[in-house]
Amino acid sequence: MKEIHTEIEIAAGKDEVWSVLTSFAAYPDWNPFLRTVAAALRPDAPVAMSVAVGARTLDLDAAIMRVAPGRELRWAGPISRLQGVVFRGEHYFVMEEIAPRRVRFVHGERFAGLAIPLLGGWLDRTLTPAYTAMNVALKRRVEAAAAR
Fold first, then answer.
1. What's the mean per-residue pLDDT of the chain?
2. Which of 40, 55, 116, 134 is the most buried (most CB within 10 A)?
3. What is the dihedral of CA 42, 16, 93, 123, to 10 degrees?
4. Which CATH superfamily does the domain covering 2-147 fall into?
5. Is the pLDDT of residue 80 over 80?
């Protein structure tokens, strides 16, 4: 098993962070990592996404695992069980209120599968900066909206 874990503090309430995080149609306007996401916010709903990884864009699929408005969104993929034996990820976003109008946004992914020993270093080098860039962009977008 391999995990990528990032965090950032956002000066806003959990509902404001949740609103921006789950407004998937606006992702192309601000999100440097998850370029597009199409999904209904309910468990087992399919997720179709395009992710920017370095200079490449990858189209991936997943399924929603958990939806807890204002607290947590989680999906896992790929949907194919055969592919999942080789490589599987469970992506999570968690919002923790640490003070009034202050949220710790936790963003990460747990990976498993036969390919993980070969891909672990690449995942660290590629995904940690991508997740961090998304966190910074989310913080800017949420805080700008909260200031209006």
1. 94
2. 134
3. 130
4. START domain (3.30.530.20)
5. no
Q: Domain locations in the chain?
A: 2-147
Count of all residues that appear for the chain in the document: 148
DSSP conformation class of 113: S
Structure tokens at 110: 């747990």
- Contacts of residue 113, defined as CB under 8 A and 6 or more positions apart, other chains included, come to 84, 85, 86, 87, 88
Residue 52: HSE in the Cβ half-sphere, 13 Å Cα cutoff: 17
Q: How far apart are CA 147 and CA 48, in angstroms?
A: 32
Residue type at 3?
E
What is the C-alpha separation between 82 and 62, in angstroms, rounded? 14
